[in-house]
Design goal:
The protein is an all-alpha fold. The chain has 3 helices and no strands. It has a domain of 45 residues.
Amino acid sequence: MSRKSAPRGMPVAETPPKPKNHRGQIDVAGLLKALEAHVLEEAALSATQVSAALGLLKKALPDLQSTTVEGTAPTRVFVVSDTPDPKSSEDWVREFSPTSRRPN
């Protein structure tokens, strides 16, 4: 590992350690409030400040455009009947299936 060289007698500048969770340290709510206030003309931000806020938001928030959800979810089907007596499944199909319906 190489060290930085400095003139004789001068200390070598150390690079400060980077935070491990820099995304978690970004105040997303504060950035959104500042941008919202700017849009609603309640506060004035320079173009540089707006650009920096948008850049930080891109780092802190996931890009939802590239998120894909795949798979199947279980589906439940409930049948609510307005008749007091329950019908057998054959009776129900006979009465309510689209092929058995007669035009009124």
